[in-house]
Amino acid sequence: MNTVVIVGSSLAGLRAAETLRQEKFDGRIVMVGAEDRAPYDRPPLSKKVLSGEWDADRVVLRKADDLAALNLDWRRGSAAVGANISERTVTLASGETIAFDGLIIATGGSVKRLPNQPTWRGVHTLRTLDDSLALRGELTDGRRVVVIGAGFIGLEVAATARGRGCEVTVLEGLEAPMIRGLGAEMGRYAALVHEDNGVVLRFGVRVSGLVEGEPGVVAGVALESGEVVPADVVLVGIGVAPSTEWLANSALTIRDGVVCDRTLNAGVPGVYAAGDVCRWHNGLYDREMRVEHWTTASEQGAAAARNLLAVARGEEPKPFVDVPFFWSDQFTARIQFVGRAEGGEKVSIVVGSPEERQFVALYESDGRLVAALGVSRPRQLMPFRKLIGERATIEQALELARSFVAT
Fold it and tell me: What secondary structure does DSSP assign to 30-94, as a single string?
């Protein structure tokens, strides 16, 4: 194997490149990135960068000297637009075609938009550093900000905008915030800190479109009820879709991501996926899943690179078994979640309480601990990640929780 192409130059792609070098691969590594930037960290975009606390240069993932030491062949600012798996080539928007012996797909995701979403001034999405800087410039004291979508990014933006003195309303079509990650009851509890800080949360409302004021300038959000919610700034935060359009004719299996086996292989020798774009069979839960979180992206990037090299050397690849972990900072609350909840689990608060705005809740399925939520209880939450990885019973988890309460 002489040439490995990594498509996607964010966290998963960078960790793949670093791991290839750590594993003594001395061949050519071509790093393809749609943005004309060095790899940078995305979690601060809705918090530290958006608030103005951090400048843009604070989010770079590695120093220039560290990147140079990897000896990468960069293709920045030219996204991949196609892949011919049988001929083992990737085509870029620039028209260049790059041949590969190994391919790691780490293209992440792209933000979803409203149907016919206009490009008016004041209308924003948030995925890139440029998005964050553009939105930051509009979050000034007294402006009316409407966030469409009460997921984690939407609520982080709401908290940041409120901290900059804006009047903030969050619109959500479902019955509770963060419902896809936490479930309805825990989502409501975790978001109480927003009500404490004056954010208006509205659930069960359907957006029909945006309203124009002056030509080319947003003035509000129209609801299906006929109401118009006034707005100077609108953030559309309705989720992320895996960036797989460029693979439409590749013969790979695409189903809400690149479908991979337990080792992150995409069904073709030498082709792997990692990060937000990867849908793989997680043996810990015995189900296929796609995870859009920082920790999984980092760990999968490294695992994909190791397995690519292992197979090339005639060795056995290792299944990637993951206990997902993510966190979200909103006002004074740090929300952390370990494991995976699909809905229908029995949930119980075992440490603290929502009234204190600090608690730990356990998610149980068939007598087994499958997930845990912590709100501003980091030291007490993280030990449950290890228990989940050990396939602990709920009784073992409750015993650990009792030790926390006793102390």
Answer: EEEESSSS--B-SGGGGTHHHHTSS-GGGGBSS-HHHHHHT--EEEET--EEEEETTTTEEEETT
